[in-house]
């Protein structure tokens, strides 16, 4: 049996993407969390970009970059999450290529250093959400996921960032997703999916908030110290 080790920071969305794919395929794997401020030598030796995720296979192969890991898993382990049709598969790959652009609109808001940076980042969210709203209008008329009824790699790719939007919205309401009904329904379906979650939801949201506090970002002032300490 193949042995899989997924190396992670606890709150990294890119790792969450790889973990979601593993769970969708019912693959047993070891999760090993490292400290982003103190990355061990063994990790630096197997991660060319010094980033997570790294998927270690049978203690002798290391894959890196979440998209490459997801594609590898989909090619080697059933069930296949990419569509069978080549055109549909290419469309799906194109939308996974949009993930970094989409993600930056959410993460920049969360990690803004001051109010001006927060406002500037928040202003970019509607454009990114609008792109996905239009894509979903074409893609998912017959179900709750990106391709309709069947879960795909696109769903796994966007789920962590949509989840973080909800986290942010509960720290300081943004009120953007309400204007995009298809996107909101998709996001809620993904949040309900067990594979999305590496931790119990309340625990993970507490970790996310604690990370914002640790970084001393502008949003951290809206997170009570006592709540983070208790969690």
Question: How are the elements arranged and paired?
Answer:
Blueprint: E1 4-8, H1 13-24, E2 30-33, H2 41-46, E3 54-57, E4 61-64, H3 66-76, H4 86-97, H5 99-110, H6 115-122, H7 125-139, H8 153-171, H9 181-192, H10 201-215, H11 225-230
Parallel strand pairs: 1-2
Antiparallel strand pairs: 1-3, 3-4
Helix pairs in contact: 1-3, 1-8, 4-8, 5-6, 5-8, 7-9
Description:
The protein is α+β, with helices and mostly antiparallel strands. It has two domains: 4-76, Glutaredoxin, CATH 3.40.30.10; 86-196, Glutathione S-transferase Yfyf (Class Pi), Chain A, domain 2 (Up-down Bundle). Helices cover 55% and strands 7% of the residues. It is built from eleven helices and four strands. It has helices spanning 13-24, 41-46, 66-76, 86-97, 99-110, 115-122, 125-139, 153-171, 181-192, 201-215, 225-230, and strands at residues 4-8, 30-33, 54-57, 61-64. The chain has a four-stranded mixed beta sheet with strand order 2-1-3-4, covered by helices on one side. Helix 1 links the parallel strand 1 (4-8) and strand 2. The longest helix has 19 residues, at 153-171. The radius of gyration is 18 Å and the shape is globular. It starts with a strand and ends with a helix. Residues 226-231 have low confidence and may be disordered.
